[in-house]
Description:
Elements: H1 10-15, E1 21-29, E2 34-42, E3 47-51, E4 69-78, E5 80-85, H2 96-102, H3 107-123, E6 126-131, H4 138-148, E7 156-158, E8 163-165, E9 175-177, H5 184-193, E10 199-202, H6 222-234, E11 239-243, H7 246-255, E12 259-262, H8 268-276, E13 280-282, H9 286-293, H10 302-325, E14 328-329, H11 344-355, H12 360-366, H13 369-375, E15 391-395, E16 411-414, E17 417-420
Helix pairs in contact: 3-4, 5-6, 6-7, 8-10, 9-10
Zinc ion is lined by residues 84, 86, 132, 334.
Amino acid sequence: MKAESSGTPLETQLRNCSAPVWIQLGQAFDGENVNKDFHLVYSEREILYAGEQTPPAELVKSGQQDADLLLPNHTVMPGLIEAHAHLFLAGAERDPSVRAETLKLDAEILLAQAEARLPRLLRAGIIAVRDAGDKDGVGLALQARYRSNRGVPMPYVDSPGPAIHHKGRYGKFMGEDMEALGGMEAAVADRVQRGAYRIKLLATGIINFEKGAVTTQPQMSAEELVAAATAAKGYGKQTMVHCSGHSGADNCIAAKVDTIEHGFFMDRDQLAQMRDRNMAWVPTFAPVQFQLDAPECIGWSSQVCANLRRIIDAHSRLLQAAAELGVCVIAGSDAGSHGVPHAHGFFDELEQMERAGYPTLSILQSATSRSVERLGFDQAMGRLKKGYLPRFILSDRPLLDSVRHLRSGATVVFDGHIFSGGDDAGQPGM
Length: 430
Ligand SMILES: [Zn+2]
């Protein structure tokens, strides 16, 4: 048995282990529960054993009595799942005018920039991304690349292709209007034909921060959302719906869409209805929190900052209510939005959920097993469990005490590849 105190970095120790690798850890979060004195046996292809008992002899190397590595001071948990990111955009760019220019770049350049983000996501421990849409085919290209399995490690990616919106309403930068194709059903059919994994709908506009409210009427009626959800279901697809504002949420609830993204200005009664209809909520605090933390980037006045504070506080209370009511909450940062870098923004989101009063263990569930299981990923991820993909995080920091310990210092195992060192938030491009 190689002791933890041997002095070599964990990454090297893991590389020196031959498959199947058997590690014994002080603590584990298996995607749902906390376990003490945990054994994990894995190959490059799958987890062979995970549990508190000594693994069966037939799953470890012939004659092996003890773990390859004993890590009593380490915690292991499944890799993280970012459930709302726009991979085609760098969120780290804070200058709005530079950001506006980025949106005009050719699709090939946007794709190349997005590809460069993928290994950095893995190093940060993010093993899967539910892309939230782009008009340039970047997300669809990355989804296809993941599935072509060329042996280059990259996070799981699925994409809705271009979001569906109404001509002249919010969303042109990431979507295509349904009028171009003659209506909702045709737009859904078009996205499916282009390979969309799920259907992204823009049910409302965005928050008017100067007024501190959503000031436009929802862009999609309940009837339109019912038509979209019905069409999507007919193709076996989920619906992920951008929505802020009370009346927009009512429309989404009437249509029983799969997820409400953002969901600012909802109320407790709406959350209860979401729970009863098995709808999930992805709160995405990060883009609003950024504006509150760095108002100078947009030139916000103290009055707007007061609005932002009020919006974040109300959203925090809503998250507490979701915990009390048992609503399915899923962690997604809206990375790629202004001021929300990929990876770093996801850690910001998790920390914001914690500050809002959402329990740490629930946040970890919302970023692993709950995400995979509610969002319909077609690969076994998000749990430390026999038969699941071997994609997990090891850290000697107290991961289960606070999500802030996830931000750095972890070693990531991903299908036999090993990464450590995290990602540098100071580096541009994310
Ligand atoms: Zn988004």
